[in-house]
Amino acid sequence: MACGASLNTLNLALESGTVDEVYMSVDEHIRQCDIIFLCAPVEYNIEYLAKLKPLLKEGCILTDVGSTKREMHEAAHELGLDSYFIGGHPMAGSEKSGFAHSTDHLIENAWYVLTPTTETTEENLNKLKDIVGLLKGLCLVLDYKEHDRVVAAISHVPHLIAAALVNLVQDNDNSLEQMKLLAAGGFKDITRIASSSPVMWEQICTSNTEPIANMLQLYINSLKDILNEVKNKDGASINHLFERSRDYRNSIPDAKARGLIQKEYSLYCDIVDRAGAIATIATTLSTHQISMKNIGIIHNRTYEEGALKIEFYDKESLEKAVEILNKWNYTIYPRK
């Protein structure tokens, strides 16, 4: 059963066989549900909690898929829904939204965090774990407060930093926009997530305010230390900064599991500067059934001498492209 505001979306789900019943509003039909997933933005999910409360049958599991958990848990507690509610956060997604862009492998190898309440039964928690397993996701159970602290550090603050760094360059560029002209390679890599949806990130930052603010303050404190080290030309401390960060980053497993910030699968390729060069590469890859997500010229050669950047949808496509382009004697640089 599916319930939503868009009749077109509901009909698509019905026609595909994904659901067998659709409704435009929350009503008595909800009483037949064993598990309910709330998939709207957090503020709307909170409103649905109150509407759903009188319609939940005994033993029903009520869960959500939001990226912040505190507000949902607090609202569920105030409504006396602690025995029903289990927070959920599938750490997967794409740049496309809506049922028309849905896929049966979205959750595969992605972390799926569950945040039970103090009244969640082991039986209900195991039911949700089993569903995550059927989707081939990787389940992790966390306290909801710890969840929000973790995602603030690994996702929310990095997005804010990326956006601030892009704006720093924009605000301090000269009239000829030479910073923008030369911005490529490393700069574009570390600021890629700054292209995310402003509306979504406004909602995330206003619903996870305290953990984000705490992590931001710690980051600001570390930047102040770095500023002093640079001003004082403290080479030993600067070396230690990069050494620590290198060692820790290298200790992070190369993702079999997908995390919150989606990995980019891309390579850089030297090409001959002549008409048809890009088309030749594109045709070569498409002939081998490799789909490219994006392809474009890098307008300077500061990054490993790369001239053409090709982005793929998954690791398998990247590895196959590397193999094929190597056979054709292209000089390529897979992105680390």
Give me the CATH architecture of one domain, please: 3-Layer(aba) Sandwich
Cα radius of gyration in angstroms: 24 Å
Structural class category: alpha/beta
How far apart, in Å, are the first and last alpha carbons?
A: 43 Å
Question: Helix count, per DSSP?
Answer: 12
How is the biggest beta sheet arranged? 5 strands, mixed
Which segments are poorly predicted (pLDDT under 50) over 5 or more consecutive residues? Answer: 300-306
Spatial shape: globular
The CATH homology group name of one domain: NAD(P)-binding Rossmann-like Domain
Helix content: 40-55%
Average predicted local confidence, pLDDT: 87
Order of H and E elements = EHEEHEHEEHEHHHHHHEHEEHE
**Major beta sheet, strand line-up:** 3-4-5-6-7
- How much beta, percentage-wise? 5-15%
CATH top level of one domain is Alpha Beta
CATH fold description of one domain: Rossmann fold
Describe this structure in a few short sentences.
The protein is an alpha/beta fold and 336 residues long.
Characterise this structure.
The structure is a single chain. The chain has helices spanning 7-16, 42-52, 70-78, 122-134, 144-172, 178-182, 186-190, 198-207, 209-231, 235-251, 277-287, 315-327; strands spanning 2-3, 22-23, 35-38, 61-64, 85-90, 111-116, 138-141, 265-269, 292-297, 308-312, 332-334. With 336 residues, the chain is α/β, with parallel strands linked by helices. Among the domains are: 2-144, Rossmann fold (3-Layer(aba) Sandwich), CATH 3.40.50.720; 265-334, Alpha-Beta Plaits (2-Layer Sandwich). The chain has a five-stranded mixed sheet, sandwiched between helices. A four-stranded antiparallel sheet has the order 9-10-8-11, with helices on one face. β1, α1 and β2 (22-23) form a beta-alpha-beta unit. α2 packs parallel to α3 (70-78). The radius of gyration is 24 Å and the shape is globular.
